[in-house]
Amino acid sequence: MRHGKKIAHLGRTNTHRKAMLANMASSLIDHKRIQTTVARAKALKQFVEPLITRAKVDSTHNRRVAFRALRDKYAVTELFRTVAEKVADRPGGYTRIIKMGNRLGDNADMALIELVDFNEVYETDKPKKKKSRRRGAKKAAPAEVVETEVTEEAPVADEAPAEVAAEAAVAEDVTSEESTPEAADESASSEEENKAE
């Protein structure tokens, strides 16, 4: 009987289970989403959410507690830098489990567990509208769009106009002389005629 035993054993010994959860939590923090079985995802959710709550307060003690659980200094750094910054205003529920169907080999229930704040598909930046409790509440008129006229201004040159003109003239001379081989043949033939006269 398993009366009062609330921990999911997952068919492993105590040390093996802790090592597996530490590895899965490190992968979840690094990759922001992982695919696993539903039972492991539920156990991982219970394992990693208290660590994310601790990461909100960056102190030496909290870092040591997180390192004891995760056993990976790079995952601890990622947890306290990027993950804690993203979930700073969220009061809980940092992960989401999405069921994916059954695995082909052994028909196990598969799930995708991900960090909620790192999913761009579900994330919306629009503020939520306040619902009115009155039945006859009037809807707000849409805001008018104000069109502004765009005027083009001449780009300001950093150099003086005389210097720009001189450089352009030099560039035209160089490109006109070297541009085509026919022009080079014509100039060579005109020079020979001049020498002959």
Q: How would you characterize this protein structure?
A:
It contains 6 helices and 3 strands. Helix 1 packs across helix 2, helix 1 (14-31) crosses helix 4 and helix 3 packs across helix 4 (73-86). The protein has 2 domains: 14-118, Alpha-Beta Complex (50s Ribosomal Protein L17, Chain: A); 161-196, no CATH class. By secondary structure, it is mostly helical. The radius of gyration is 35 Å and the shape is extended.
Largest sheet, in brief, is: 3 strands, antiparallel
Helix content: 40-55%
Instruction: Tell me the β content.
Output: 5-15%
Class of secondary structure makeup: mainly alpha
SSE arrangement, N to C: HEHHHEEHH
Give the overall average pLDDT: 81
Count of distinct strands = 3
Q: State the oligomer.
A: single chain
Q: Which radius of gyration do the C-alpha atoms yield? A: 35 Å
Briefly, what CATH class of the largest domain?
Alpha Beta
CATH architecture of the largest domain: Alpha-Beta Complex
Which overall shape is indicated by the principal axes computed on the Cα atoms?
Answer: extended
Q: Predict the CATH topology of the largest domain.
A: 50s Ribosomal Protein L17, Chain: A
Number of helical stretches of at least 4 residues: 6
